[in-house]
Design brief:
This protein is of the alpha/beta class. It has helices spanning about 1-15, 25-35, 50-60, 65-70, 85-90, 110-115, 145-150, 160-190, 195-215, 220-230, 235-245, 250-269, and strands at about 15-20, 40-45, 60, 75-80, 100, 120-125, 135-140, 155-160. It is built from twelve helices and eight strands. An eight-stranded mixed beta sheet has the order 3-2-1-4-5-6-7-8, sandwiched between helices. α5 links the parallel β4 (about 75-80) and β5 (about 100).
């Protein structure tokens, strides 16, 4: 009997429960499986169509209800909409042995702790690129179990306080804007005569190369790398001068500021 209890505890410790089976849950499950992580995953039943898809494609199980997810899993991922958080958590009973990993943007650590006590709570926000194990996965506060889980989804960056984590949430929005920027450039090259495939590969791999170089040149600031390439008289400098004269980068900072303010207001409500 004791051996069976130990086996049950081990299973619960490994199993990932997910409350809210939307896009973000799909990113996480896909990313885990692509990284070779075959841990059991138990899904809440609310979004039956997506839950069934994840069950068929990635071997997940579907719980009878949300409390069953909590009862059978010590690690629980919360990936519902902000407006649903209070209603869902108020109807669930956690223990001090639970780790609740909240992926809900705009809801503070303190708010989740009040609703999910006495569970331990951390915040994160995986992106769509987590499916490929790429991009940033913010974490606040640091937690060894959460870090080990999230490391399969991308580069985990631990933030020391709520304010820092809020900036990571803003960066998550910036990540989404990148696709519109890349699409604009791709369309320009296609309009000049390249095939859509050529234009897309040219833009994406140019950006990929730029970020790869910056990642290894840690002894230089990003501006120093830029200026070392865009030297006087080069075509790169001509284009850069035009962009800076038109303050092409200012709207990006303005958009980030707006999102950061909106997130701060939502947390204070």
């Amino acid at each position: 009997m004791a051996n069976k209890s130990m086996q049950d505890l081990s299973f619960m410790s490994k199993t990932l429960g997910i409350l809210g089976v939307g896009h973000l849950a799909s990113y996480v499950v896909t990313g885990l499986r692509n990284a070779g992580d075959q841990r059991p995953v138990l899904l809440s039943p609310r979004n039956k169509k997506r839950a069934l898809t994840l069950k068929q494609e990635y071997g997940c199980d579907i719980a009878v209800d949300n409390q069953a997810v909590v009862n059978q899993c010590k690690i629980v991922l919360l990936s519902v909409r902000p407006a649903q958080v209070e209603e869902i958590l108020n109807n669930l009973k956690f223990t001090a042995d639970h780790l609740l990993v909240s992926c809900v943007a705009g809801i503070s650590l303190e708010q989740i702790k009040i609703l999910a006590g006495p569970a331990e709570v951390v915040l994160t926000l995986p992106l769509a690129c987590s499916e490929m194990g790429q991009g940033v996965v913010p974490l606040h506060p640091d937690n060894l179990i959460a870090r080990e889980l999230l490391s399969r989804l991308g580069r985990v960056i631990v933030f020391n306080d709520q304010g820092q984590f809020g900036l990571a949430s803003t960066a998550a929005c910036m990540n989404g804007w990148m696709y519109a920027f890349l699409d604009n450039l791709t369309n320009w090259f296609a309009a000049k005569g390249l095939s859509e495939t050529q234009a897309r590969e040219l833009v994406l791999h140019s950006v990929q190369g730029a970020t790869a170089l910056a990642a290894v040149k840690t002894d230089q600031s990003l501006r120093e790398i830029c200026d070392s390439i865009a030297t006087s008289g080069t075509y790169t400098r001509i284009g850069l001068d035009i962009l800076e004269a038109k303050e092409a980068f200012s709207p990006w900072a303005e958009a980030c500021e707006k999102i950061n303010e909106a997130l701060a207001e939502e947390k204070s409500d």
